[in-house]
Write the structure tokens for this entry.
Amino acid sequence: MGAVNYLLDTHTLLWAVRDEMKLGKNAFSIIENINNQLFVSAVSVYEIVYKHQLGKLSEYDYFAENFFDIISKLNAKELPLNMNHAHFAAKLKWAHRDPFDRLLAAQAFVENLTLLTNDPMFEELPNITITW
């Protein structure tokens, strides 16, 4: 099987860094497989640091201060947010209102990436490929 390009959902990224036991076997295998290309969205970095500053992710102090090193250690590539992503997210016909999830879904679709997530909300989107 050839390499697949994956966008890590925010919780997937956090668990890959600190709570590997929360990852399913398949998700862990995907992250560990050097033939797969992993992407981390600027949206996830913003979400983590923002929520950390609000006191919501206090257990992820290390990530909030060292995300560039962490992303490098995962051999992941940065996925910047662009206007195509924002436009698609804004027009997305989806009852889910979380702006971070909407932007990640848009990036996965626009960039043709498989979203690595265990969030069942994404299953409502027929054009987004997800796996866990």
